[in-house]
Structure to design on (80 residues):
């Protein structure tokens, strides 16, 4: 588990609300990837345009499927 306070608080929030461990793991992966993609900036300093650029990167550069993009989007919606 990462020592990031953001990721730790997201994980604790999901555990308290009894999310499945697989969902927690998936959401934490995409949230961490999003933060690292934006050079480790705190999510509160990022805007809708940052979310859009991340999702565009996933499709254009990583060539992910629509389902994978939807999971990443759901993780970011949960984050915000």
């Amino acid at each position: 588990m990462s020592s990031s306070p953001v990721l730790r608080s997201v994980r604790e929030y999901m555990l308290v609300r009894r999310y499945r461990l697989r969902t927690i793991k998936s959401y934490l992966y995409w949230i961490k990837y999003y933060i690292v993609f934006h050079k480790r900036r705190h999510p509160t300093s990022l805007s809708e345009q940052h979310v859009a650029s991340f999702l565009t990167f996933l499709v254009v550069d990583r060539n992910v499927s629509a389902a994978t993009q939807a999971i990443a989007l759901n993780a970011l919606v949960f984050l915000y």
Notes: The chain has four helices and no strands.
